[in-house]
Write a structure and sequence with these properties.
Elements lengths: L2 E3 L9 E3 L2 H17 L4 H20 L4 H10 L8 H11 L14 H13 L5 H8 L10 H12 L7 H9 L5 H18 L6 H19 L1
Antiparallel strand pairs: 1-2
Helix pairs in contact: 1-3, 2-3, 2-7, 3-6, 3-7, 4-5, 5-6, 6-7, 7-9, 8-9
The structure holds fe (ii) ion (2 copies).
Length: about 220
């Protein structure tokens, strides 16, 4: 794991130094992504911003910053493809969310990348692919690395602020990681509802599982 300097105030001041082989791999991932998303500069900038944010959140919350950075770089890999290509890939891979794929097309890119990228980067462990798989939909069994990527995706500095995003940003370093994730996750659901969009039934199940766990914990 990389060594972190946390002396300076503010998450953006956190710097991590990595072992030579980790540095080489991160450089390669960044290079590959830059080529893969050459036609989508905003998506590329977002991905690299998520990677830095995830790395810093990882340091703050005791998660492996190397895995967080790698997951951040690769999390939107499949977004290089159009929605129709993503739907085609999901069908080819047999991804079955239990509802029409078209209804949940915005959730598919994480699941697709998590199934296709391990062959390309066998050096990276399953934990990275799990984080990428659940970065859109979340799940009831989020690991701290999964939570770090999910939160980083929602609050990276290039993302325009909203009351929900502002709240999560204000909690960084002050609230436990699972509370940051919860606020981020619920904020995402509110966004879907307010926009009158389709809400994936799996998200409702995840919400209920997490809400029940949180209620139980506050009673203990
Ligand atoms: Fe994404
Ligand atoms: Fe993203």
């Amino acid at each position: 794991m990389g060594k972190a300097k946390k002396k300076a105030k503010g998450i953006e001041k956190i710097e991590v130094s990595y072992a030579p082989e980790q540095k080489i791999l991160l450089k390669r991932l960044t290079f590959d992504l830059s080529e893969h998303l050459a036609d989508k500069p905003r998506r590329l900038a977002h991905s690299l911003s998520v990677a830095k944010t995830a790395e810093r959140l990882a340091v703050l919350y005791g998660v492996d910053p190397f895995l967080a950075r790698a997951a951040g770089i690769l999390h939107d890999w499949e977004k290089a493809c159009s929605v129709s290509e993503q739907l085609e890939h999901a069908r080819e891979l047999g991804i079955d969310p239990g509802v029409e794929l078209e209804l949940v097309h915005s959730l598919l890119h994480g699941m697709i990348a998590a199934r296709t990228l391990p062959q390309r980067y066998p050096e990276l462990p399953p934990a990275v692919w799990h984080a990428i798989a659940v970065h859109t939909s979340a799940s009831a069994d989020m690991t701290p690395l999964d939570e770090v990527l999910f939160v980083a995706d929602g609050i990276e500095p290039l993302r325009p602020s909203s009351p929900g995003i502002k709240l999560v940003r204000s909690l960084v370093g002050k609230a436990p990681l699972e509370d940051l994730f919860w606020e981020s996750f619920v904020g995402g659901i509110v966004y879907v509802l307010e926009g009158g969009r389709y809400l994936f039934p799996g998200t409702i199940e995840t919400y209920n599982a997490l809400a029940a766990r949180r209620t139980k914990r506050t009673k203990e």
